[in-house]
Design goal:
Blueprint (H helix, E strand, L loop, with lengths): L6 H19 L4 H37 L4 H16 L10 H25 L3 H4 L2 H36 L3 H7 L21 H5 L3
Helix pairs in contact: 2-3, 2-6, 3-4
Length: about 200
Amino acid sequence: MASLRSPATLLRAFLALLLPLALAACGINSVPTAEENAKAKWADVQAAYQRRADLIPNLVATASNAAKIEQSTLEGVINARASATQVKLSADDLTDPAKVQAFQAAQANVSSSLSRLLVTVEQHPDLKSQARFADLMTQLEGTENRITIAIRDYNAAVQDYNTRIRTFPEMIGAKLVHGAKPLTPYEAKAGADVAPDVGAMMNGN
């Protein structure tokens, strides 16, 4: 007849089963997972903005060669792009609101300069009808949509992470084990980072 286990043995077995659940509830695993997800979403934001930056030189060159557009307008776009590429924001900087705001301001300046260029392009229907320029504008429209989606996904991931590190019981592991700090959402000031309405411009609206 098999011997019965002692109470101490049963208790140890129970604690061994309970410990992983307790650690999970305290955010030992979920907090860093949520943080990595937010950082991955931020990489998507950066990739979308880099795609826009890569399009701008060809866009400006095509517009400059095909129409008499004011040099100041073209230089405004190039200078805004150059300034924006100098403002770096790594995933480790996402806890610093000042650095996030600096990045936002630089990208908002690019958006504003592009909007001014598109207003000028409106006065040159011959340029709008050119296949090369139309193709670049289509790519720009798709990129602006990607930026919007990437920012939305990043903000959702940040909200999830920030909620975890501020609510019980996950806040225990977040503070005591990981030393977690809130991530900064991407929140442009009203009207400061409105993407150029490329589709409306190309449709003549």
